[in-house]
Design brief:
This protein has about 550 residues and is α/β, with parallel strands linked by helices. The chain contains 19 helices and 25 strands.
Length: about 550
């Protein structure tokens, strides 16, 4: 079988107008970017806003491993499977970040015969949304530093600048820098650091805004610095909110593409789930819910991160009611959680897989905390043995976990028909969705609730810096908002090396920041980084363009 890129390059795509017709999008709302992708005008809300919502399905997973879980592949395969059984369905995905594309992970448009296309464009520049977010973020940073340089009329303390510049690339050298060195005409010299674009507040705001006016109002509230007398300074104070809205006026419109089987897909927004809230835009999700009877979406990394934030932040702030959750697991990944190293994953090992299934059990328990119907999707790999798959299905049955096999990677929608039928049945069950904490509770209690109910931690410890930030947030009235946990995705703990289902551990909160525009507090745990680095052998070294002008090496 060809690799993902070859499969995508060989695909015959329908033109984007045909996909819009299939989705029920009037062509007058379409803004084409070539023949195979388009933006959809926000004016469509005037026509479809009063329609009833379709059913909302979240796809999440166990803690990710190097073995692979296939959450996006399952999301796309499930949408194609629902299409196969005659359901009107759309998928909603996040836009890939160039950091992972060129770093370790590779592309993020699904895999095998369960992909969104055009795969190359989606993984690279697409419709320019990432560049717009980068520009808007850096525009605000430039105007902030210019205000300090031009006489500092707002009395800003350069040592207390909170707003960071960004780049959509993994570049560890930008984590700790000094700006405006040497000449006074360069500005006011100070310590600074970059974050990756997908961890910025502009990205978070894009994905939580209702429309462009709401976006501008949220950006205006963002805290960029503090004065010498401890007063917060906002984007509105430096008069950058209008310009940021100008930069983002096209990027805020959702992007329409298709799967290999021509199922309509919105790909819009891409906040990281280990730092930010890990969900595609509310605009895309809400629009899809008005257009389709079923909407399949995903949230980044495992259920401890993306799903928790989808259910505690996105659904709460967006007024969404999820109808079903699909928890993806693979035999390979469970074996890694059970102690098998990467070199021995091809070997049958039922005992290790069942030991690793404890990680899956915790994620199932976490989803149960939210009161939403769920099932386990066993994403198949060719090396899985019948004995391993049967053992996992039996384990699920013994524990009362509904489960289905998923084979979208090899067979597209035909490989997910039973999964699709089961998910549709789940959506007919009553949902008792509720967040796991009261937004009006204290910051510490909200963090404790997430840590204990979702991670399985015993306790939470705070650094002096974190405790001081909590006092500042309370004094400014910023404490009655959701909490967005920044944590390693590789473990239920804040230590990436601890696999499986650990117990009796403590979560360590090192720092906090206020994302006042997005509407949440970010709690940084363990040694989480907001600017990743490249691995020893980046994925980029295997990429290029051949003599025919075709790309290679992109996943």
């Amino acid at each position: 079988m060809n690799n993902d890129l070859k499969i995508a390059q060989a695909a015959v795509l329908e033109d984007i107008y045909t996909i819009a017709d299939k989705a029920g999008i009037d062509r007058k709302y379409l803004i084409p970017y070539g023949n195979d992708k388009a933006k959809v005008s926000l004016k469509i809300a005037d026509e479809i806003g009063d329609r009833p919502d379709g059913k909302l399905i979240l796809v999440t997973a166990i803690n990710p491993t190097k073995a692979g879980e296939g959450k996006s592949t399952t999301t796309i395969g499930l949408a194609d499977g629902m299409n196969k059984i005659g359901k009107k369905v759309m998928a909603c995905l996040r836009e890939p970040s160039l950091g992972p594309v060129f770093g370790l992970k590779g592309g993020a448009a699904g895999g095998g015969y369960a992909q969104v296309v055009p795969m190359e464009a989606i993984n690279l520049h697409f419709t320019g949304d990432m560049h717009a977010i980068t520009t808007a973020t850096n525009l605000i940073a430039a105007m902030l530093d210019n205000s300090i340089y031009q006489g500092n009329p707002l009395n800003i303390d350069p040592a207390r600048v909170e707003w960071k510049r960004c780049l959509d690339m993994n570049d560890r050298t930008l984590r700790t820098i000094t700006i405006a060195q040497e000449k006074a005409t360069n500005g006011v010299e100070r310590k600074d650091h970059f974050v990756i674009t997908v961890a910025t507040e502009i990205m978070a705001i894009l994905c939580l805004s209702k429309d462009l006016d709401d976006f501008r109002e949220r950006v205006a509230r963002c805290i960029v610095a503090y004065t010498y007398d401890n007063k917060p300074v906002t984007v509105k104070d430096i008069e950058a909110d209008g310009a940021a809205a100008v930069v983002m006026k096209d990027a805020i419109q959702p992007n329409l593409v298709q799967t290999l089987e021509h199922t309509p897909v919105f790909v819009h927004g891409g906040p990281f789930a280990n730092i930010a809230h890990g969900c595609n835009s509310l605009i895309a999700t809400r629009t899809a819910l008005k257009l389709a009877d079923y909407v399949v979406t995903e949230a980044g990394f495992g259920a401890d991160l993306g799903a928790e934030k989808f259910l505690d932040i996105k659904c709460r702030l967006g007024g969404l009611t999820p109808n079903a959750v699909v928890i993806v697991a693979t035999v390979r990944a469970l074996k890694m959680h059970g102690g098998v190293d990467a070199e021995h994953l091809q070997e049958e090992n039922v005992e290790a897989m069942l030991e690793g299934a404890k990680n899956l059990a915790k994620h199932v328990e976490s989803i149960k905390e939210f009161g939403v119907p769920f099932l386990v999707a066993i994403n198949k790999f060719s090396a899985d043995t019948p004995k391993e798959v049967e053992a996992l299905l039996s384990w699920c049955k013994e524990n009362g976990y509904p489960a289905e096999e998923s084979d979208g990677w090899a067979n597209g929608g035909n490989g997910t028909i039973e999964l699709a039928q089961h998910v549709c049945a789940l959506c007919d069950e009553p949902t008792h969705y509720a967040p796991v904490y009261d937004v009006n509770d204290t910051i510490q209690n909200k963090i404790l609730a997430i840590s204990q109910k979702i991670y399985g931690a015993a306790d939470v410890e705070y650094s002096e810096t974190a405790l001081e930030k909590i006092k500042i947030f309370i004094s400014n009235g910023w404490d009655r908002v959701p909490v967005c946990m920044a944590k390693t995705p590789l473990s239920l703990t804040d230590d990436p090396n601890i696999k499986g289902r650990p117990e009796h551990f403590t979560i360590h909160v090192q720092d906090l920041s206020i994302s006042r525009g997005a509407g949440f507090i970010v709690a940084y745990t363990g040694s989480i980084l907001t600017m990743p680095g490249l691995p020893k052998v980046p994925a980029a070294v295997h990429m290029g363009v051949d003599e025919n002008g075709d790309s290679y090496g992109i996943f």
